[in-house]
Amino acid sequence: MSAARKKETPRHTEIRNAKAGRDYFIEERYECGIALRGTEVKSIRAGKAQINDAFGRFEKGELWLHNTYIEEYSFGNIWNHDARRIRKLLLHKHQVRKIAQEIQVAGRAFVPLRMYFKEGLVKVEMAVCSGKKLFDKRDDLKRKAEMREVEKIWKRRR
Q1: Which of 102, 113, 140, 147 has the fewest beta carbons under 10 Å from its own?
Q2: Which residues contact 92 (CB under 8 A, 6 or more apart)?
Q3: How does pLDDT run across 76-121, given as a tens digit for each residue?
């Protein structure tokens, strides 16, 4: 007698920001909640979101996520969400104060690294970052090329 197997459907549980590591030095990471509507959650669960151009901004004592694209839910009705609306980030007050100080005083950027599900809730991993210059990016590329060469050598030795 065989047990029924679960259907394995590929779910997009994580949306990544590909530009973050290339354009910024990531200094401090935060796990933030985000205020969403039901149709937005369904679109994220389907993998129809993009955070490559998104950024966080401190306004009116709160943190807001700007320029995030969450596609309209295809089975939604007339009360479907706006794809590029500004969304509120949910953090503790002491964290908001610390991040606001970093952004305003030190001139750093608040950038999303990834958006994922944690126990049924959508979380956004945000980071306080400082921008890279062109020569920093070149150094990173050089370092990656050297690491690839080392990996090739180690592969041949095995």
Answers
A1: 147
A2: none
A3: 777 777 778 899 999 999 999 999 988 888 778 899 999 999 888 9
- Three-state SS across 69-108? EECCCCCCCCCCCCCCCCEEEECCHHHHHHHHHHHHHCCC
Taken in order 41, 42, 47, 52, the sign of the CA dihedral is negative
CA distance 14 to 61: 29
Hey, what amino acid is at 80?
Answer: N
For the chain, the straight-line distance linking the first and the last C-alpha, in angstroms and rounded, comes to 44
Query: Is residue 8 classed as helix, strand or coil in its secondary structure?
Result: coil
Give the pLDDT confidence of 20-38 residue by residue, as tens digits: 888 888 889 999 999 988 8
Compute the distance between CA of residue 121 and CA of residue 108 in angstroms, rounded to an integer: 28
Minimal CA–CA distance to 95: which of 121, 148, 56, 50? Answer: 56
* Per-residue pLDDT reduced to its tens digit, 127-156: 999 887 877 778 888 888 999 999 988 888
Q: Is the pTM of this model over 0.85?
A: no
Q: Taking 80 as the threshold, does the pLDDT of residue 126 lie above it?
A: yes
Neighbours of 21 (CB within 10 A): 15
